[in-house]
Amino acid sequence: MAVALEKSAPLAGVRKVRRRTVVAAILVAWLLLFVVLRGRQTLTLAAADLTDLHRWFNDVNDSIGADRNSNPLFLYFFNEIRLVIDNLVTFIQHLISQPSAGRPLPQIGWLGVVGIVGYVSWAVGNWRVALLAVAGFTFLGLQGLWQESMDTLSLTLSAVFVALLFAIPLGVWAGLSDRVNRIVTPFLDFMQTMPTFVYLAPLTLFFLIGGASATIATVIYAAPPAIRITAHAIRSVPETTVEAAESLGATRGQALLKVLLPMSKRTVVMGVNQSIMAALAMVTIAALIDAPGLGKTVVQALQSLDVGTAFNAGLAIVVMAIVLDRVTTAASARAETARRSKNRFLRWRRPLLGAGAVATAVLVYLSHTYLWAAEFPGDGAIGSSIASAADTATGWAQDNLSGLTNAFRDGITNGLLNPFQSLLTDSPWWLVAAVLIASGAVLGGWRAGVTTAVCLGLLVGTGLWSDAMTTLASTLVATVLVMLLGIVLGVWMGRSPLVDRLLRPTLDAAQVMPPFVYLVPFLALFGATRFTAIVAAIVYAAPVAIKIIADGVRAVPETTVEAATSAGCNTWQIITKVQLPMSRSALTLATNQGLIYVLSMVVVGGLVGAGALGYDVVAGFSQGQLYGKGLAAGLAIVLLGVMFDRITQAAARRASA
Fold it and tell me: What is the model's pTM?
């Protein structure tokens, strides 16, 4: 056995060296051919030019618009779905955000909403969470963004409600059935791979722009986490527990209701948490298709480079995200906390909840009846002060830090981004395709190579090859920087429990924030350039990569590290020769997640000068003649995401094998 292990280890090392050598050889050949073939067959398309595919998409859009009120498919399917969703959204908006039924204000004013939020937070969590929720929602009003915040909350609640209606049952079904799980998993992978932008354009084709399309897009984006986590929760229940229940005469339905679901409750609630966070992120981005709320304020401010207004609205999004995250997280942990606690006041919980319900009903009545309790008092002076402070800080940064920020921006742009982008966009399209296919096959196997070939072939068909290569360059450069940052901080966290305890809460909080929020501070520092999108993408993607690498380093057996230490290895040698090599699968998974997060953020950066595919999508929403091009850009983004995902996932499986 020992001899076999000794023989297999060198062979594995040879295979890894060979893969690295082959990839290096491919890159060298690419550089040599680039020198000879530069500028030929690059498939460049001007910003205003359209291909036959783009014109066909435009014609389809026009045709659908003309037949929307006569085609049976729209009359009895798409229009009905839109009507139901629109009525749901309108109902919730009339409750808490928009005037209704001849009233100048919503049915429940600010005091009632704050009371309901506080009571629900206390009922599902604890008094600390309730205090945070009340303070957070009150702060939204003090910012002068109460109605915008309630519009965002209305869309989020509508989307989560609809998503959970089918996500939870489907997740339970996938947890109970291996066949259903195998069928559902590829679709969930695909849906979670696609950047948020991609959902918007095709949905406007069938449901028009507005709150209904935004909600439907949010439902599609928010459902996969709940499905996946619910299925995982059901599958995680020990089989012996289920068998014991069945041996006592429980039917399958009883086993599900009395055993599986109660034992999966905490994990299922975490799935709800993830769906809410995904919904909030999507609702803000859906402002591009005229969804009301805070996202619309941020988009308009970004487009006019109004950093102060964007910062104030972005801060409101962060506050709402933190409140929703803490409430649902507390809900998942409350049952276990109550079971372990021996606090004598727990027996008073039900009477106190009853008294709280009465108090909340009184607040709702007051907010429905009296103007002072219905319309948030004040003129949003705090929000104006925040916006003014942000503008002042922006001006100071531009006056005093421009030399440093410009030098950093120009160094990365001229030293790394421009040469790599030139290599991708100025090489013949077939040469880049050959390099990517060969690299995918070497790193991920022949299946990854075939998937890459199919994606690239379809990418050529979109007519946006050059823009796709520009996006690819920004994505890969940002991912390299994400991995460098991830390795440094991830190794530090993995080796030091103290550092992990200090950094992990910050990383968790960073993952709660929607993508839009990251653009605002870097817009102030670097202006409206593609570099702004790259830096925002790095900050957006780094937390997930850091945590994955930290967990991988921590999973290395202590006995292995102790053996290396006793053999005389210093800290650097232990990290580079032991911990990182034994964390290869975690590194590859971090690369996978980093690529997907970066691609999503780079595309959103089309709002602040990133150009390429992100700009094409945004232009497609705002200019009717470019709708087809925007739709093709969305398809190109999907193809890049699928290609990245399949190559890195296959490489991760190889690394862990």
Answer: 0.80
